[in-house]
């Protein structure tokens, strides 16, 4: 792995199908992509590959042709109804697709407000992912049951600190939760598999609706908000892969997907360079 690899996140390439995402990443200098093969809510946008063997074949061919890898797949939400036991698990298709694509990570959200059950389910997910060589990356988000980095660490610890456990740092949620740089530095290196970068106005005064809107519709290019991105990057391992996750409906309305991906990568790399 190069000193700093960059991945084209789903939200940045949300207008692309899996094959197009790989092609855009190759054309603009990313080493990998993230794909959302499971929606973050029933009926929400996603990239359709599960249950479509022809799309999987085309995606594998695009990987071979471009040399771009699939880094992470989205999304597994751990709510009170989560069920992973048994061969008929609804998640089996996602895990098998991840194995076929040689993905490294699964993005996980923690929604269950019962801490013991959440940790138990997280541990079960880690166990289910282990045979596939996948890490379970729990992303803290201030409006969920895992609102900050300290809460994510508690879930992992209460789950028994599985070997393939992970904590995902999204710069947006770092900037809008009570997570500090010391909290980031306190995360053990073995739990960090990648981080997501974008910018926005920092602060803890936003409503849940405002936070979700920014996360899904109105992120800023690095340097255009007030999140301490330089401090965050400096607190992260120097070789940690960075997922460029910048969605902005207004700016994208007049910017083709390839141009948008290139703009996002250039702004991210410029920020990272100044943070070193």
Name some characteristics of this structure.
about 280 residues; TIM Barrel; eight-stranded parallel β-barrel
Account of the protein in words:
With 276 residues, this protein is an alpha/beta fold. It has one domain: Divalent-metal-dependent TIM barrel enzymes (TIM Barrel). The chain has helices spanning 18-28, 53-66, 92-101, 115-129, 149-158, 171-176, 181-185, 208-217, 229-235, 249-252, 257-275; strands spanning 6-8, 32-36, 69-78, 105-110, 135-139, 165-170, 195-197, 242-244. An eight-stranded parallel β-barrel has the order 1-2-3-4-5-6-7-8, surrounded by five helices. Helix 1 (18-28) packs parallel to helix 2, helix 1 (18-28) crosses helix 11 (257-275) and helix 4 (115-129) crosses helix 5 (149-158). The longest helix is centred in the last third of the chain and has 19 residues, at 257-275. The protein starts with 5 loop residues before the first strand and ends with a helix.
């Amino acid at each position: 792995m190069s000193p700093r690899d960059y991945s084209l996140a789903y939200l940045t390439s949300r207008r692309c199908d899996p094959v197009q995402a790989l092609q855009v990443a190759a054309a603009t200098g990313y080493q990998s992509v993230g794909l959302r093969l499971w929606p973050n809510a029933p009926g929400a946008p996603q990239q359709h590959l599960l249950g479509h063997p022809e799309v999987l074949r085309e995606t594998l061919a695009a990987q071979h042709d471009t040399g771009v890898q699939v880094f992470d797949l989205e999304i597994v939400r751990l709510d009170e109804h989560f069920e992973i036991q048994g061969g008929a698990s609804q998640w089996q298709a996602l895990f098998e697709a991840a194995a076929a694509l040689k993905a490294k990570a699964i993005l996980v959200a923690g929604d269950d407000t019962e801490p013991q059950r959440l940790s138990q389910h997280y541990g079960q997910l880690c166990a289910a992912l282990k045979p596939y060589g996948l890490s379970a990356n729990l992303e803290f988000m201030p409006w969920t049951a895992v609102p900050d980095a300290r809460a994510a660490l508690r879930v992992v610890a209460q789950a028994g600190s599985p070997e393939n456990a992970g904590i995902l740092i999204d710069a947006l949620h770092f900037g809008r939760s009570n997570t500090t740089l010391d909290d980031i530095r306190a995360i053990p290196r073995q739990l960090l598999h990648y981080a997501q970068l974008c910018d926005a106005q920092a602060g803890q005064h936003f409503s849940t609706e405002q936070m979700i809107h920014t996360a899904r519709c109105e992120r800023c290019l690095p340097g255009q908000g007030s999140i301490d991105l330089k401090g965050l990057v400096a607190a992260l391992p120097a070789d940690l892969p960075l997922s460029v996750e910048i969605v902005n409906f207004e700016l994208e309305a007049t910017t083709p997907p390839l141009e948008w991906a290139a703009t996002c990568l250039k702004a991210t790399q410029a920020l990272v360079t100044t943070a070193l």
